[in-house]
Every structure is written in C-alpha cells, then in structure tokens.
Queue: 2 jobs
Job 1
Amino acid sequence: MKKILIAFIPLSVLLGLLLLLFLNMGYHNETIPSPLIGKPAPAFSLPTLYGDETLSNADFMGEPWLLNVFGSWCPNCLYEHPVVSQLAASGDVKVVGLNWKDEFEDADNWLTRLGNPYHHIMVDYVGKTAIDFGVYGAPETFLINAEGIIVHKIVGELTPENVANEIRPRLEQMQ
Amino acid sequence: MKQFVRIFALLIITSSFNSFAIEVYEFKNDEQRELYQDLTKELRCLVCQNQNLADSDADLARDLKDQVAEFVINNQDKDTILAYMIQRYGDFVTYNPPLNASTFFLWFSPFLVLLIGAVILVINIRKKHNE
C-alpha cells in the first residue's frame, strides 16, 4: 500500500506543476517593470513633427504631462487613438506624442485621417530617445509630473479603464 | 516558367541582402568583435522576449545592437554597457540577472530543491539502517 503511494509522488508532482503552469497562463504578460519610475525623465532634445521647433525637458516643466509613444505603423496606436483624443480634449493633462520610428509622410497621413489629439508631437525616427526611456514597443505612455519625474508608465494601449484607474488618480494626487 | 525564374532570382537576391546585413559594424580589433558578440548574446530582446539580441531581427533589437556596437567601438567596457541597458530596461534585459531581493528566489530555489532531496535521502537511509 505504502509503495503504491510513493509511486504516485512523481505523478502528483507532475500534476502540481501542470496546475501551476495552467494557473500562470492567465497571469502571464510581457510587461517589463520600468526602472525609471520615480526617477527624472531622461534628457531629450527632439524636433517637432510640425514646425521647426526643438523641445527638451525644460519645455515641459511646471505641469504634469503624458508622453505617448506612437507610430502610424502600430495597430494598437490606432486602437487607443480615441482614448488619447478624449483624454487630451478633456484638458486635464497635456498630452505629448512621441512619433517613434516612423516617416513624416506616414505619420502626417495617419494624423490627418484620424485627427491630431496631441498638444505637441516630437519625433524620434532614429530611436535613441526611445531607448533612453526604455521603450520596447508602441504604444507606451509615461506620466511625468511638474518636476520632470516619471510617475507612471503604461505599456500597451491606453484604455478607458487604465486611464480611470491609473492615470486620473495620480493626476488628482498631484494637484 | 519565366515567372518562376524571375521570382527565384528575386529570392536569391533578397536573401543575399539579408546576409549582407549581418556584419555591418567595423570593429577596431577582434576583442571588440568578441565583446560585441558576448553582449548581444547576454542581452535579451525586449520585443521577442525569449530571444537574445544577437538572434533577433526586431526593429528595436537592431537599434539596441547599433547602440551596443557604437559603445564597443568607442571602447566602453562590458559593465558600463550592461549598466546602460539595465538602467533603461531593468534587470530583465540581461539573461544573467544580478542577485538582489527580487531575484533571490530565482537564484536559490535550486538549492531548496537540493535540500529537500537531501532530507528525503537521509530519512530513507536511516530507515534502511533501522530495518
């Protein structure tokens, strides 16, 4: 009898592992926690998509703002576009676009077709600033406070839920 | 048939483009080349997370490889380059994670399993002795 029980140990270990893996499937995500949260935004100096301006960290000091990394090539940016537009139109936070690894014509067409929600659009076609921010996909959104500190990061598209649960409470806290 | 030949020729031409793209960096010496290869094997591609940079052809992986190559050519050492990446992407970016509070279990869980095995072994041996 005891021997039979011992023989079942490997089987139960296997079943346990399978259960563990199965349970983890639902939780699995590829979001990498950013080490930049709570730290000053990396220094940048970028041209704007429209006009001849160059914007850097200093231009955004004094009020909280969102940095939204997008590209015309990115399907989920299309998906989040209405949410970005709504948030920008609400006037509750300055929304700045970072047009990443794109081309002017494509970006311009995309924005003309869908509407341009951004207060400013900066351009990073080489991708250096994106690397400094630890961007590894689009869309990504950074919430940066009036002192230039990165407060929060959302990997993937903005949704009405994460805007309500993650962005808005932090904005309210800042006031 | 003509169409087929044309497509075949096109395939050959484009595949040779691909192999051209592999060695684009001009390192100053073999040590730099080795360091570059070392680093791109140790760094993870953030887009396709089960690949290292060397194996990945994702857009971001190419940008990161360019950056690594630039540092290597400018004589930055390995630790500086790794620190640069970890500062931006966190410990996750390296396949050789450092020992700290959040990776403690990762590093020591094998010893835990070993310990459990040892305990079972000792109990069994004692039992055999007593019989």
Job 2
Amino acid sequence: MAKNILFTKKAKKYEGQYIAVTKEKVVASGRNAKEVFQLAKKILGSQKKVEGVYYVPQKKDLLTALCVFHTSS
Amino acid sequence: MRFPYFQLGPGDFAPIITLKIRGKEGWLGVEAYIDSGASFTIFNVDRADILGIDYTKGKRIHLTVGDGGLLEVYILKVEVELANMRFLADIGFSKQLGVGFNLLGRKSFFDRFQICFDDKHRMVDLDLLR
C-alpha cells in the first residue's frame, strides 16, 4: 500500500495549505505552492531536495462538481 | 497497487493519491483527486512553474466544467511516476483550476490502469492493464 505524509495526522494542521515535504517531514507550508517550494529550497540548501509539494485538502474542497469534458481546441 | 483514500474529516473520504511528475528541476511529488468524470488530467500551473515546465508550449484547448463554464488548459506530454510505473502522460495545466488539488482524469491514466474505487474500504486500486 502506498504511504505518504499527506495521509498522516501530521498533515491535518495544514488543511487548505500547501506543504513542501522531504524525507517524510514538512519543511515549509503556506497558501502559495511556488512560495512554499522556494522557501523549502532555501531551508534545505543544496544538500537536500524538495521531494514533494502537496495541497492538503479540506472538507469544503469537495463540495465541488469535478467533471471536466473536452469540448474545443 | 492500493492507495488509501484521503480523510477530510470524520466519515469524509476522497480518492486523492500521490504521484510524481518530472520537469527541468527533476521529480516532484504531487497530489491528485482521481476524477473518473474528467476527460483529462489537470494540474494547477504552479506545479509547472515549480518544475520549470513551459506549459504554454502545450496544445491550448478549452474544457467544459460542471457549470457549463470553459476552462483554458494547455496539454503537453510530461513524464510521470504512478504505482511504480514511469510513463509519458498528457497533462493539462490551467490557471483556472478552482480547487486546490490537481485532478487525475481519464486520458493517459484510465487507459493504462484498471482503476477500481472501493468506497467501503476507502481504497482505490490501480492495476496495470496488459
């Protein structure tokens, strides 16, 4: 089974935010994915890589019709 | 490969999984809601920017969303890693995606994996089609 920090209780406090993750640890968080990534890169320096940038969904996100259809080019 | 649903609250679960996408900056883990009703996979453009992917080089199309509105999307081939498989996938990038998470749609994914939603056990199975 696939596991990720996104699915742990640790991520819950970041609901509605983006988290940058390395080695199963949250390195940075915030409302803007690019800024979170840049901040994490700064914190980690050149030795470690940002392994993931994830949005932590919140309940209200799912009150959305998600269907998307191809219509025109 | 089994993926657990993401828990949004007591009794609320959604088929949100993680995968990796590759750009000039290397590989990056991202989340995506498996949306069987979506024709295409759509990521917010911020992920393209992070990875150094020039999404404007992709094919520009318009997709219709649930309320009849149009979504401008740039489709291009991007290397992805999902369920221990690496392959080129058609990924759409949009500035107008109105939800925080990305959407994993049918093109390049539902034709590569048999995807089975198990709401009772809050799991989604992705099995490679042969």
